[in-house]
Sequence to fold (486 residues):
Amino acid sequence: MVSRGRTFDTVVVANRLPVDREVDAQGQTHWRTSPGGLVTAMDSVMRHRGGAWVGWVGDTGEAPEPFEGDSGMHLYPVALGAAEVEEFYEGFSNATLWPIYHDVIVPPTFHRRWWATYEAVNRRFAEVTAGVAAEGATVWVHDYQLQLVPALLRDLRPDLRIGWFDHIPFPPVELFGQLPWREELLRGLLGADFLGFQRTTDAGNFIRACRQLLGTTSKGEVIRWEGADDDLLGAAPRTVRAAAVPISIDAADLEQLAKTPAVQQRAAEIRASLGDPETVLLGVDRLDYTKGIRHRLRAVAELLDDGEIAPPQVTLVQVATPSRERVAAYQELRHQIDGMVGRINGDYSGIGHAAVHYLHQSYPREEMAALFQAADVMLVTPLRDGMNLVAKEYVACRHDLGGALVLSEFTGAAHELRQAYLCNPHDIVGLKRRILLAMRDDPEQKRRRMQAMRRRVFSHDVEAWARRYLDALAMAPERPQRRSGD
Ligand code: ADP
Ligand code: F6P
Fold:
């Protein structure tokens, strides 16, 4: 257990800290907001609450001393060496678990060495956390990279209240069961008191996996695990609750940003630099094969080919954030997307009028808000996505009730934003129809849809999510034990 003196009543544990370290050519260190929905959501939630955040700084250098982040949280860096980044992060987390948890869109890779490193890194996270959590503290562990932390941490600190939240889907047992380490992963998670998921289906998949693979019993959302002879961690017997608590965004904060004159002016500038089109289509995603970017480009290419849309009247802006760039499937995807965009632009752009504006970059929040304001139709077409916060961000920014959202049925967000133009991205003909409908629908109809979606996003914002989650964790079925030796 690593103890650095100070301890906290609330500890967040996630693979990444809210900031990534970047060292420039002059050797100067800069801190940048880390990518992804987890950080967007948790950063705003923890801003009001304070506490410690245990996570990785995103490179292979030595871990800096703990420091205070912009939000007032105390950040406790965990170091990962080059081999650990390759085997734990790029390997087991993102080439084994990620594809299994996202419908095996690409084939998963299984390596015993990756698993050993996953275990070792999870143990390190648990040890650092055990050193910073105060007696009886609440520890909130996040996501698929850290599924062994709940049990490892409970073994070290039975006095803690431990929760885990799954930001991505939890797969059906037919897919989860492919994992050679399926039982170890389930036992790792059962070290928590409360397990939160994006959808009821995800919680149900987890409960079924426990029943079929571990022989647990369950009543509704409550699982009883009696343990096994080889249960070295001693987490069992335990009673654990698993339920859906869908994540959200700080809608009011984003709306306020979108209303500022600077953002509104920037939105107008963006439209002007695109040549003041009648319709701006927008996609914003990490460059990930789960996001359905290829399907979206295919639909747009066919619409151009059909003569239904053409630049400069209609143009697509596709923002694709660099992501996991050393993982083979992501390199392959980048190659494919670069090629598709090149072909579409070669065939359909004119001088000064691109059919697709493709931006492989990260932007500040203000620029994202301006892009959302500038877009007439937002295309969110993942093949599978735990939630998709971009869809909610678009809705929050449209205080003018303008715009239209085309949203894949295979996102968590589609379970809440029922008034979106829902689509099946595998059905290219259907997707094309939905895009055209979103462009051409009666404006009053569009306003009504946007209003209904906004009601949902504002009444179920990230603060409501955090309260629901933390209340469920506090009321979890088991009482924590006192610290051994007390
Ligand atoms: P994921 O967690 O899989 O990346 P989400 O849609 O849930 O997907 O969250 C993505 C988050 O990252 C959103 O808050 C979105 O605004 C932000 N984001 C996406 N692309 C960019 C970008 N190019 N620059 C800055 N922020 C981005
Ligand atoms: O939502 C899944 C997730 O892995 C989150 O942990 C994170 O928000 C996002 O994707 C970014 O991924 P990475 O940390 O691999 O860049």
Observations:
- Residues 8-244 form a domain with the Rossmann fold fold (CATH 3.40.50.2000).
